[in-house]
Amino acid sequence: MEASSWATVNPARTLPVSCIPALPNYSPGMSAIEQIRRLPLHDKLLVMETLWDDISRHTREVEVPQWHKDVLDERERLLNEGDARFIDWEVARQEIEAAIA
Length: 101
Hints:
The protein has a two-stranded antiparallel sheet. It is 49% helix and 9% strand. The chain is mainly alpha-helical.
């Protein structure tokens, strides 16, 4: 992909604006999801970051589901009662990796 096809989205990131139409086997009737599935991983991450940046600018418009609130309330209750604790991210990552291995 040529450098001219990249547009600045965030000072720290760039998104290939024309990457989807430039894909091999691209068809104009293809859904956006299918186009994204065909992107290389690096470009998928850029698309994801761009979407997240855009969504985060509209947080007031996003309704938090009640079940999310319930989970957070329960976790806060457990912390307040001393039945839960915070752990270091590296420890948590290792525990997660061990659990799914």
